[in-house]
Design a protein that fits this description.
mainly alpha
């Protein structure tokens, strides 16, 4: 194969691409090093600040990192749910369970939103299938 002006050779090399770059942590550590500080020294300073009675921020931040506050999780809910019903019937079941206080309203709404999204996916899938069928019929009429 002959050389072209786009062939790679000693004069024509791909330009170096920039990588992902340095992380923020690396940049901070390098800046600390330039200032004559170390990561360990930073943590020592952090501990001094945390136990300073006039500092109302640092101790709380350290505590949150050592022992984070757990995220709220919805409780498990049990109720009769007929999976054989159509999606509209299932949504009505959820509304009924909400009205009987078997399901909290926020969780019920989340479930109904999920059902709605399933309906939309089915709708788009059906339209896509119909469109492909029509395109196939147009391309090869019999």
């Amino acid at each position: 194969m002959g050389k072209t002006k786009t062939s790679f050779n000693s004069e024509n090399q791909p330009k170096k691409r920039k990588g992902r770059g340095k992380s923020e942590r690396t940049k901070i550590l390098e800046a600390m090093e330039r200032a004559g500080q170390t990561e360990e020294g930073f943590y020592d300073l952090l501990m001094k600040k945390a136990f300073n009675p006039e500092d109302n921020f640092t101790f709380k931040e350290l505590l949150n990192r050592i022992s984070p506050i757990p995220k709220a999780v919805a409780p498990l809910i049990k109720f009769d749910f007929d999976t054989n019903l159509n999606l509209e019937g299932q949504a009505n079941q959820i509304l009924s369970a909400m009205s009987k206080s078997e399901i909290p309203p926020d969780i019920g709404n989340s479930i109904i939103d999920g059902i709605y999204k399933i309906i939309k996916v089915k709708e788009v899938t059906d339209i896509d299938e119909r469109l492909k069928k029509m395109e196939a019929e147009i391309e090869s009429p019999e």
